[in-house]
Amino acid sequence: MKLNVKIGKVQFKNPVTVASGTFGYIEKYCSPSKISQLGAIVPKTVTLNLREGNPSPRIVETPSGMINAIGIENQGIDNFLSEKLPKLTKFKIPVILSISANTDKEFVTLAKKVNNAKGICAIELNLSCPNLKKKQLVAQDAKATYRLVKAVKKVCKKPVIAKLTPNVTNIVEIAQAAKKAGADAVSLVNTFAAMAIDIKNRKPVLGNIVGGLSGPAIKPIALKMVYDIYRETKMPIIAMGGIMTNDDALEFLIAGASMVAVGTASFVNPNASIEILSGIKKYMKKNKIKDIKQLIGSIRT
Amino acid sequence: MLRNQKRYKVISNKKVCANFFRLSLNAKFLLKKIKPGQFVHLRVSDGLKPFFRRPFSVFRAQKSLEILYEVVGDGTQILSKKKRNSSIDCLGPLGTPFSMPPKGIKQVVMVAGGVGVAPFLLLTDKLKNKGYDLILLYGGRTRGHVFSFKEFQQNGCKVFVSTDDGSIGVKGRVSKLFTKINLAKPTFIYTCGPKPMMASVQAFAKKNKIKGQASLEEVMACGVGTCLGCSTKTKHGYKTVCHDGPVFDLDEVIFQGGA
Ligand SMILES: Cc1cc2nc3c(=O)[nH]c(=O)nc-3n(C[C@H](O)[C@H](O)[C@H](O)COP(=O)(O)OP(=O)(O)OC[C@H]3O[C@@H](n4cnc5c(N)ncnc54)[C@H](O)[C@@H]3O)c2cc1C
Ligand SMILES: Cc1cc2nc3c(=O)[nH]c(=O)nc-3n(C[C@H](O)[C@H](O)[C@H](O)COP(=O)(O)O)c2cc1C
Ligand code: FES
After folding, report:
1. Is the bond preceding A57 in cis, omega lying within 30 degrees of 0?
2. Residue A207 falls inside a structural domain
3. By residue range, what is the domain housing residue A196?
4. Is A65's C-beta closer than 6 angstroms to any atom of ligand 2?
5. Is ipTM strictly over 0.90?
6. How far is the CA of B35 from the centre of ligand 3 (A)?
7. d(Cα B106, Cα A301) in Å, to the nearest integer?
8. Residue among B2, B48, B231 whose CB faces A30 most closely
9. Which of B5, B51, B225 sits opposite A65 (nearest CB)?
10. In CATH, what number is assigned to the domain containing residue A171?
């Protein structure tokens, strides 16, 4: 059974990975043999400098999901490369590094720093970060997306993946801009802008007032976005958004995703990604599918 | 992908006073690993409602793993309906435990509010017969919110109770019981309960130059330090309650809206 998929020049042994911000390697608890089974790992978004993150509360549970406003708390790229990366590369699976910045220039600086880092196989641009000048996310504007991806592609030796926000009118247009600028793939969806209010004191529940919705509640919407982008662009897609089970993952693969990332599900069931991988294998065996590529985009309409 | 995720059978799940339940899980292989102050992260329903796991301090770890809990919402309501021999998906033990009192300490004071008493029974299991004066100052809303001081007394712990309505013990806040502390003795304080109560303990400790620790609560998703969702502000920046905590040094914590 062939499970390998390709993005840019990079081969992944299988299509199952984790969504940025939902996988953190804690030695005390993790089972290394299980992590090594994944196709790739995507650590939490890293920025140029340390970010403290948002005031608490940072998360709230919602029906079939959660809203988060973590605020990309991280120690900065230099600390990541020297402290965290060596711990991740020992699993001998590719690391896709998610990066974010306030300006195109900062994105380029980050990409250059990552160029020579061993063990990082590709870069994911988290374009859902606030573009301070325009009070808008990069991935909410096709032109800004094009410009940024192009700038990073110019300096980056590794495949570039553009992570898109679903908070747009027409996500296909943004994906097309990324493709035109040379993006090797898109990943979607990031979280849906959302909020919750405590009616007892009429205050927002989150310290940041607003946040992003993830989990099974968003799955059908994310699926439709993946379907639309695949149909219109045929570009490689890393899909995420509420994937809890292998059935969910299969839906995304059939809609056109080359890879699937497990996010929020891991908080509820830490073993979800591994169970999904074995579930995909079972499905392929049962349906006599020899190569995962026969499954990708195989929707019958 | 986590080593410590397992299903355990329910041995018993009983109402022990008006507001609290006691759940006992057949988790033999965990018992020796658990340290006072650690918690378990339970998936109370295998479906999507409620969505998150729920964290509970380990109350006791003798023949079985026990938790003491109060029904406050849907999750704990579902938990209270678990029958003997059903099983629960459990992650743990998790978190940083209480540290043992430093050298020279003669008196150990535990200040608990309501179900915040839960981590202290295990602590007294560890601290008994070591020559400390063990004191529990225990505040609750009503008689139905204070439980199990007999087991504390069996561990040689003196128990003083206060309730908001005076239905048992002294009427008023637990801070009224601070007079029970012998300030002439080298003392260490542990506290767990509502934030305003812990803030008053922090202020008292500061005034009397007493060191101690607090066990905090935040809403949790992963429970293992991954999502950074349960972060709380400390004097050393944001720390995760699930992984860096739940136990923090008392003088490190910033109780928002509190002290
Ligand atoms: C480390 C840790 C240890 C804990 N140990 C115990 C224990 O030993 N026994 C026990 O009864 N409870 C304990 N709790 C609290 C317990 O996790 C919550 O009571 C439980 O999650 C509530 O779930 P629910 O679905 O019943 O209520 P929900 O419907 O989720 O909430 C009901 C109400 O409780 C509040 N609430 C929910 N979760 C928390 C929380 N984590 N902290 C403060 N308020 C909350 C909500 O804001 C709401 O007002 C602990 C919490 C933590 C973080
Ligand atoms: C707690 C939390 C933190 C996240 N942090 C990041 C992040 O740092 N960078 C990023 O690109 N996406 C982040 N995400 C978004 C996820 O990677 C993912 O796109 C989204 O949650 C949808 O997938 P899911 O429903 O499977 O979680 C985060 C999501 C959650 C819930
Ligand atoms: S609950 Fe996820 S970091 Fe604490």
Report:
1. yes
2. yes
3. 5-294
4. no
5. yes
6. 19
7. 76
8. B2
9. B51
10. 3.20.20.70
